Amino acid sequence: MARKSKKAEIAEVAPGAPVVVKTVKGFDRDLKCRGFQFKAGKTYSVEGKVVVCRNGWHACENPLDVFRYYPVGVSRFHDVEQSGDLARHDEDTKIASATITIGVELSIAEIVSRAVKWIFDKATVEKDSTATSGDGAHAATSGYRANAATSGEGRTQPPAAKGRTQPPAATGRTQPPAATGRTQPPAAKGRTQPPAATGRTQP
Fold first, then answer.
1. How far apart are CA 81 and CA 59, in angstroms?
2. Where do the H-state alpha helices sit in 44-143?
3. pLDDT at 94
4. In 108-143, which positions are buried (b, 16+ CB within 10 angstroms) versus exposed (e)?
5. DSSP state of 65
């Protein structure tokens, strides 16, 4: 009964944690970690509260993070599965778990390949989540501005497309005064004769 109570208490530390997490674990050349001897294909468990760097089995979700703890050339690396109560490191993807199962050994090339896939999958999930849940993404396909772009609504037409304002010459030309009525110089209407023409004043 005491064990069940302890497990129930630990479960509250990481509610909703994944049942199984695929990770990569490093070992020394003898397949030991901190003096504990592991064997491929075996499952191991710990008692007590799972705390990162203090209690639990540790491995990294991002395969490249494992090189921070076990350098290439003097270490061995295995695919592992972590389950049970989990706790995550706040500086990288290291995970502590209550249970761990040791899988197959991985080469450096396989670790790099897995790392590329892990990063790509993570980026894809984050991108899809942003594209389908954000207001900006929704506006791109269903928003007013997108609709206006295809239906014409909201588009301001240039004045020339709706109705062209004709220049004054096209609707009615204002003729220069000479075209509508020429103002004749006084000589054309009636010439004022010099006094000699109407009656000459004799000296």
1. 9
2. 108-133, 135-142
3. 97
4. eeebeebbeebeeeeeeeeeeeeeeeeeeeeeeeee
5. G
Quick: pLDDT tens for 22-50: 999 999 999 999 999 999 999 999 999 99
Task: Specify whether the CB–CB gap between 92 and 64 falls below 8 A.
Answer: no
Q: Is the pTM of this model over 0.85?
A: no
The span from the first CA to the last CA of the chain, in angstroms, equals 158
Closest CA to 105 of 133, 139, 80: 80
Q: Which residues, other chains included, contact 144 with Cβ-Cβ below 8 Å and sequence gap of 6+?
A: 154
- Residues 105 and 96: their CA atoms lie apart, in Å, by 20
As given in the structure block, the two tokens for residue 147 are 């609709």
Instruction: Render pLDDT for 47-95 as a digit per residue (tens, 0 to 9).
Output: 999 999 999 999 999 999 999 999 999 999 999 999 999 999 999 999 9
